[in-house]
Amino acid sequence: MTSTWGYISAYVVSAEILPTRLRASGLGVSVAFGRVGAMVTPLLLTSAFSTTGAPSAPLLVLLALALPGPVAAAMWWVKGRETWNISLEEGSDDALTEATGQQEFRTRKA
Fold first, then answer.
1. Nearest-angstrom CA–CA distance, 106 and 93
2. Within a 10 A sphere around the Cβ of 63, how many other Cβ atoms?
3. Is the dihedral angle over the CA atoms 97, 103, 105, 106 positive or is it negative?
4. Do residues 80 and 93 touch, judged by C-beta distance below 8 A?
5. d(CA 35, CA 6)
6. Closest CA to 33 of 3, 55, 54, 63
7. Quick check: is 44 in a domain?
8. Structural domains of the chain, count
9. What residues make up the domain containing 66?
10. Does residue 106 lie in a domain region?
């Protein structure tokens, strides 16, 4: 269930914050990291339980693995951009200009 939420949120977040030109690559990298996590997590949980023998050890590992999500959400909430009524091209060009300081990404308006 958690991996499903991760994939669903990856599609929404990538459509919202990644520049239009980089969206496919960003989503691919995001999905790849998610799949690596899906392969590594069972190994970490099994190792934590077999090493300690305590049933709470895997829960602590899960807690440590889950912390980056709320931290990233809080950072996005504090410093994120509202893209309501802004075209995707305009929003992505603004984000690229803000990130790099270069004006060459701006789209020309006819």
1. 5
2. 10
3. positive
4. no
5. 10
6. 3
7. yes
8. 1
9. 2-100
10. no
Within a domain: residue 42? yes
How do residues 53-109 score in pLDDT, each as one tens digit?
Answer: 998 999 998 888 888 888 888 887 888 777 777 776 776 666 667 667 776 555 545
Which amino acid appears at position 37 of this protein? G
- Judge whether 108 lies within some domain: no
What residues contact residue 37 under an 8 Å CB cut-off, 6+ apart? 65
Q: Which tens digit of pLDDT belongs to each residue from 24-42?
A: 787 788 778 888 988 998 9
Q: Which of 19, 14, 34, 35 is nearest to 102 (CA)?
A: 19
The CA–CA distances, whole Å, from 33 to 26, 85, 104 equal 11, 31, 30
